[in-house]
């Protein structure tokens, strides 16, 4: 199977494998109702920071709106195998990742609390 894909500016990872928030390859792609796909960790971080809209379209967005993009994940894995690069590391389960992200936001806010 011939895999011709538009690469990023550095000629590495195909641009549609890149998260629009981090501009890094996605590990666990999820798609918003807007049709935009993000890396789960990055969009969780965005929403945990208090944002309530899609960072690309500005339309309302919540964690419950996100759907795993299994097809894109398989394409990323296939591309990684084809080009002998290790597949992206598995992300934490969504509930663990969500808790970690929320704790990070709380801890960032705690630094401004009076002692």
TrEMBL record:
InterPro entries in the record: PUB22/23/24-like, RING-Ubox_PUB, Ubox_domain, Znf_RING/FYVE/PHD
Molecular-function annotations in GO: ubiquitin protein ligase activity
Keyword Cell wall biogenesis/degradation in annotation: no
U-box domain ranges (all copies): 12-86
Reactions mediated catalytically: S-ubiquitinyl-[E2 ubiquitin-conjugating enzyme]-L-cysteine + [acceptor protein]-L-lysine = [E2 ubiquitin-conjugating enzyme]-L-cysteine + N(6)-ubiquitinyl-[acceptor protein]-L-lysine
Keyword presence, Zinc: no
A Pfam family annotated for this UniProt entry: U-box
PROSITE patterns: U_BOX (PS51698)
Keywords: Transferase, Ubl conjugation pathway
CDD domains: RING-Ubox_PUB
Gene Ontology BP terms: protein ubiquitination
The protein's annotated pathway: Protein modification; protein ubiquitination
Known EC number: 2.3.2.27
Function statement: Functions as an E3 ubiquitin ligase.
Protein name: U-box domain-containing protein
Organism per entry: Oryza meyeriana var. granulata
